[in-house]
Amino acid sequence: MIAALQAENAKISATLRVHDQLVQALRLRIAKLQKLAFGKSSEKIEREIEQLELALEDLLLAVAEGDEAPIDEGHNEPSPEAADAPALRRRPRVSDATPRERCELDPGTCCADCGGDLRVVGEDVSELLDMIAAQMKVIQIARIKKSCRRCERMVQEPAPSRPIPGSMAGPNLLAHILVSKFDDHLPLYRQHEIFARMGADIPETTLVGWCGRAMKTLSPLIERIEADIMGSDLLHADDTPIRVLDRSLRDKGLGKGVRQGRIWAYVRDQRPWAGSSPPGAVYRFAQDWKEEHVLSHLASARGILQADGYKGYAKLYEPEPDGTPRLREAACWAH
Predict the structure, then answer these.
(1) Straight-line distance from the first to the last Cα atom of the chain, in angstroms, rounded to the nearest whole number
(2) Which of 25, 47, 312, 335 pairs as cysteine with 291 (C-beta 3.0–4.6 A)?
(3) Residue 35's CB: how many other CB atoms inside 10 A?
(4) pLDDT in tens, 172-223
(5) Number of helices (H) and strands (E), helices first, in the chain?
(6) Between the CA of residue 292 and those of 57, 78, 229, 287, what are the distances in Å?
């Protein structure tokens, strides 16, 4: 009797988890549809989608933890029309450029039963996806000193250049830190903890200094990329609000010292019509939403500008003395 009740309780609990999972999946789908329907208020819906995705992920983890059935990673994509689509598993897609390592399990040359010779009649091949863990490496640069036996001249190779003069950081380490911080949004204090587990105690202040100096080193490259993108004959422009710390407001007793800034994005993407120029984006920060920022950013731009109905773009569409506008307007269909 007790065993039957426990089995029934486990069945009911599993059903509730599946129902919760379905509810979260439907809420997530509704939020995405709302984002498509109401593009103007997409920032709030975007945050809601992120929270729903986190909640759905927790539910899926709980279901997977209690699932003892063998995992079947099918070869097909989950159907977006199915209500339980998030519960389906898909076989991971791995690039053909990913290194492959062949591990052969050979039964030997003799039969274990009769001792006869074995011959190859085929093989069964399966794949196991694994990862090589990152590790720190110290490169010792030894500059050998030599002296000439005849004239006593000292000879030594010059020290190789470094991304940050006088720093211990190598180019691969700097690239990893920058990508982790700005692309993966991993704070420096967490990177400090990760590096400590790998055997390198790099203080947060040092990481901050490396990021700042690395940005200075990359400035010429950034300027070349910006000039190339902003010189395109077709640009997509948009902006989004961002919360900015302002200690002067807090010192004056005006709230928590947070005000609203603006991030402007200018994008070139010719992939829809197989254009020759690679896609790219330029981001510019502004203290407020005044039109002077847009006029400054696009001062040298010519061609077509696809953007929303922000009034700051109006002066860019006005005809110049020769009667032709500096930029032709291509209105955004989502606004």
Answers:
(1) 63
(2) 312
(3) 18
(4) 999 999 999 999 999 999 999 999 999 999 999 999 999 999 999 999 999 9
(5) 8, 7
(6) 43, 48, 20, 11
Q: Closest Cα to residue 65, out of 7, 14, 26, 22? A: 14
In the predicted structure, residue 277 carries a pLDDT above the cut 70: yes
Q: What is the distance between the alpha carbons of residues 120 and 140, in angstroms, rounded to a whole number?
A: 49
Contact residues for 187 (Cβ-Cβ < 8 A; gap 6+): 181
The two beta strands, 327-331 and 154-155, are unpaired
Rounded distance between C-alpha atoms, residue 164 and residue 216, angstroms = 9
- Residue 246 has which token pair? 């302002």
pLDDT at 153: 94
User: CA torsion angle for 54, 60, 61, 67 (degrees, to 10)?
Assistant: 180
Which H helix or E strand runs over 237?
A: strand 234-245
Indicate the residue type of 188.
L
Residues 6 or more apart whose Cβ sits within 8 Å of residue 134? 176, 198
Taking 70 as the threshold, does the pLDDT of residue 88 lie above it?
A: no
State the pairing for strand pair 146-147/154-155. antiparallel
3-state helix, strand, coil in the chain (%, to 5): 40, 15, 45
Burial of 232 (0-12, 13-18, 19+ CB in 10 A): buried
Mean pLDDT value across residues 321-327: 85
Q: In this structure, is the dihedral angle defined by the CA atoms of residues 110, 111, 116 and 120, taken in order, positive or negative?
A: negative
The two structure tokens encoding residue 51: 């929270």
Residue 327 near residue 317 (C-beta atoms within 8 A): yes
At a CB cut-off of 8 Å and minimum separation 6, what does 232 contact? 268, 277, 303
How far is residue 10's CA from residue 67's CA, in Å, rounded to a whole number? 12
Task: Please name which of 287, 284, 271, 186 lies closest in space to residue 238, comparing C-alpha atoms.
Answer: 284
